[in-house]
Please model this.
Amino acid sequence: MIRKDVLPEALKGVDFSEFWNDDLIRPVSRADTDIHCSCNIPNLDTEKRTIVNGFGDGLDIRVGEGQIFERPIQIQSVVKTEYKSLIELHNSITVATGAKVKIIHCDDTIGDTRSLSNNETHIEIGEGAVVEYYKLQNINNRSGLINKTYITMAEGSTLRTNCITLNGGHIYNHCEVRMQGPHCELNADGLYLIDSDQRCDNYIFVQHDAPHCTSHELYKGILDDQARASFNGHVLVMDGAEKTEAYQTNRNILLTDKAHIETKPFLEIYNDDVKCSHGSTVGQLDEQALFYMRSRGISERVAVTMLSYAFCDEVIRSIGIPELRQAIEDMVKKRLHGELLPCGNCAIPCSTPCNGSEAHFDIDISKL
Model:
């Protein structure tokens, strides 16, 4: 079963079209009531015990012109099944001229059954619109996720996007952003924390079609054990896109000599009047910092955890929703120290005790 919950600030000004094969319960009176959507996945191959979701299902969200929503829209895609599953979802988000919206898009699994999700999301941002789009991923180690996002930006629009990958067997994130009008601004951040035999691949393509546009990209990763990752970044500045500013950075920490990262930032520029830079780093934690902390009586594991979290903090601080930022801070801390450190001895305590419990993207909607 896949459960998709869309939690809008208000129904007025936002149109949620129905899932193609789902039953939709649409509240009318209360503005803060949840919209719950559910679907039954047909069992198409009982012999191979494989479940396949109806291809083409998805959600269409349209934010009206000039609509401003302080509380975010949350989309939850949760896979819970007893059999191996293949799921494909297509989502469309349209934000009209002058609108302002925050969207939290979560991918999660319940249980450890193997599954593969192939999700595609198209986002169209109108003139002067402001969009914050947060992609959160936390699936089991046996499952894979192909996440493709295609975004177009009109004149004077602003986009902040942040992709947080905390767990998964193999996750591939593909993001394309095209600035089709002048004076667009993009801030694209990413954080991936993987260990064991996990793999995470990130590809981001940013195209500057018009003058006076700015893009900032910062992706960070921490790899442990035999984990593997890759970063491919491509910034394309077209002819006529004068006064472009584009900055692309990828930084990685390898905690073992068996972890592996491939990083390929790339600039393609067809204009002289631009400010562009790109770079990548791959290394280990600062030995001098570790030695200093050990000399102050801090254990090696705690010191590694503290330095790792400090490395992640720059990406976490860019999250513009305080309650979401706090939740991600706690989840990153739990991900870094796992179940090996008791809460009483933890140097970076969470706002809620770990108690060995599994972390999920549970958001207190009343506080948003």
Summary: The CA atoms of residues 63 and 95 lie 5 Å apart. The chain has two domains: 2-287, 288-368. Confidence is low (pLDDT under 50) at residues 1-55, 339-347, 356-368. The two ends are 27 Å apart (CA to CA).
